[in-house]
Amino acid sequence: MQRYFVPETDWDNMNVTIQGDDAHHINRVMRSKEGDSVICNHPNGKAAICEISEIESSKVYLKIQEWLDTSAELPVEVTISQGLPKGDKFDLIVQKGTELGAHSFIPFNAERSVVVWDDKKMDKKMKRFAKIVKEASEQSHRNRIPRIMPMMTLSELIEESSNYDVKIFPYEEEARSDHHKSLGKIVKGLEAGQKLLVCIGPEGGFSANEAEELTKNGFSPVRLGPRILRTETAALYTLASISYHFEELGCN
Amino acid sequence: MQRYFVPETDWDNMNVTIQGDDAHHINRVMRSKEGDSVICNHPNGKAAICEISEIESSKVYLKIQEWLDTSAELPVEVTISQGLPKGDKFDLIVQKGTELGAHSFIPFNAERSVVVWDDKKMDKKMKRFAKIVKEASEQSHRNRIPRIMPMMTLSELIEESSNYDVKIFPYEEEARSDHHKSLGKIVKGLEAGQKLLVCIGPEGGFSANEAEELTKNGFSPVRLGPRILRTETAALYTLASISYHFEELGCN
What we know:
Chains A, B: Its EC number is 2.1.1.193. 2 copies of one chain form a homodimer. With 252 residues, the first copy, chain A, is α/β, with parallel strands linked by helices. Helix content of chain A is 35%, strand content 25%. In chain A, the strands form 2 sheets. Chain A has a 6-stranded mixed beta sheet. In chain A, strands 9-8-7-11-10-12 form a 6-stranded parallel beta sheet, sandwiched between helices. Chain A binds chain B through residues 70-72, 96, 99-101, 139-142, 182-184, 187-188, 223-230, 233, 236-237, 240-241, 243-245, 247-251, and chain B through 70-72, 96, 99-101, 139-142, 182-184, 187-188, 223-230, 233, 236-237, 240-241, 243-245, 247-251.
């Protein structure tokens, strides 16, 4: 069944109104009729099966039939702080990261990031990311849409990091060392409801200075297997591993 | 250190010759000089640090300095049989799948594949995939380049599947069922050196007929977490989970 994330203001008791692009999607793309059902997601994470009672050109009115109690959210809140990558890789990371259960994304302006996200581009970029995460959330049956936070510098990210229970950063030097910290050990230590911050370097990796600053501020360096992953693959490896650990392996 | 995969015929005792595009890469892109070192990978999976002894315009001559005993290969041989997806998604799957340790790839002409790979396109496609897996192997420090096998139909794939120890297929219906088979249970049962075949449907998923045929022929349906993944994300989830399990969690 098709899913739509509906803003809080469009819920009223047993009635839901879908507007804008989503109303167009129901009307013109899905060619739904009165009496058809869709799933509406509330921003609080709940979802309900709703029946279409009336279709106007730019508004669709629905009645709640049944609240669902399924959750497709990871038990741990994982935030991906991604060093600004080249090209459209950030699009790929937010799309796949949403499918894989990320809670939030923070674009991180790293020392070796070669792209510049200036104020002029920022607004357009943020709107595109918001569209990607909404569509990926609907497609992957998420209960909530991940948040895209404003771009941060290293010092802003370190300040933000005080809000998290566990902080890690994949570090290539770590993958080469015999005494690397095991990602498994860190994930095993996570408890449901905890917040994990994963800081990922851009194409050129972290500078020695960044790695030192992160370590000093409680981030543990980790490796993600013995192979060297591209920057856009690191977030996907981390999220898939956490999903596998808690949702498929049942190690905890 | 830069890595190059060198065909068997270009190894002779303590001497290695790098030709073609890779010679151009050493000469013009890396601007290497005599006395510089690179890592050469032999098709048998071994790798050696080699010193450049002479540079010609289209050939680079090297001497083996030291054989390396590191391996970046997954302990289990994972073959991804991917239902032909739309657009350039197969490129993404072979690139990321190589980074994540896949042993081989099989393009699978599924019932719901909407694209057609005809003979005319096939040769060009296979050459592009070969280039992608070689470059991704070098970049991710693999010991061997994954193999791209010819496109197969369902019955050809089922015949091929007799060469594998364990066979699975992610199935959306499975993700919705309460009695789904746990991927963790299957991965836990794998032993080093075993061969795993993962069959992934295209955008529209498997038809009921395909799912039945696969099940009848020893493929276990699995889910990859409770979220619905796009076709190109399924291979990456599976490979990352297997890497995490054996290489980072050390569950076995």
